[in-house]
Design brief:
This protein has helices spanning 2-17, 36-39, 42-45, 86-90, 121-126; strands at 24-25, 31-35, 56-64, 67-74, 79-83, 100-105, 113-117, 137-139, 146-149, 155-157, 163-166, 175-176, 179-182, 188-192. It has 194 residues and is of the alpha+beta class.
Length: 194
């Protein structure tokens, strides 16, 4: 038992001292206001519940036949899609880079609700393409709470503020949105740039 505890402490220390520990905030425009009291969607509900940590939900928008939809995919494999209602259309939603954000409650640190851009900031920086980056991150199928860049393979821990776990020297962690709030699983979730 002592040996297991020592390994856990060592791993935790590694996480907080590895490269990319400095928090990065995005300046990419985001205006996401979603009232789950209207939809009662379980895919996002588990991620926006402040009493449940470690489950994250990717939110994207798609248009089919002129109709706009919100698409949800959580880190445990659940997916759902809902046609946007008048409230979302009125709020003029803008959902982050790569047309998406990731929201959830971190299981480490202060267990706070947070929102991340759906892009790899290191690819955008390396390619000098911050105006229209196409470097999406995707949930790691083997490690819940981790995402990987689909282009360079950098790996990030969503439970530790987007901490870079695997990457090149000088790489940074995922970019977060400064203003992310949730009222719980059947309430409103909001994510704004400033």
């Amino acid at each position: 038992m002592k040996r297991l505890t020592a390994y856990i402490l060592l791993f935790t220390a590694y996480l907080f001292t590895s490269c990319g520990a400095e928090q990065q905030y995005t300046s990419w425009s985001c205006r996401f206001i979603f009232n789950n009291g209207t939809y009662l969607d379980q895919t996002i509900a588990v991620a926006i519940n402040p009493t449940v940590s470690g489950i994250f939900c990717k939110v994207t928008e798609e248009t089919r036949g002129g109709t706009r939809y919100l698409v949800f995919e959580n880190s445990h494999g659940a997916t759902s899609r809902h046609q946007m209602m008048a409230e979302e259309l009125r709020n003029n939603l803008r959902i982050g880079q790569n047309n998406g954000i990731i929201v959830g409650v971190q299981s480490m640190g202060d267990n706070s609700f947070t929102a991340y851009d759906l892009h790899c900031p290191n690819c955008a920086r390396r390619e000098n393409n911050i105006t229209n980056p196409t470097y999406p991150v995707a949930f790691d199928a083997k490690i819940p709470g981790f995402v990987n860049c689909t282009v360079c393979g950098d790996q990030y821990d969503l439970n530790s503020g987007g901490l870079l776990i695997k990457g090149k020297e000088g790489d940074k962690g995922l970019e977060r949105y400064r203003n992310a709030r949730t009222e719980g699983p059947t309430g409103r979730v909001t994510v704004f740039t400033n």
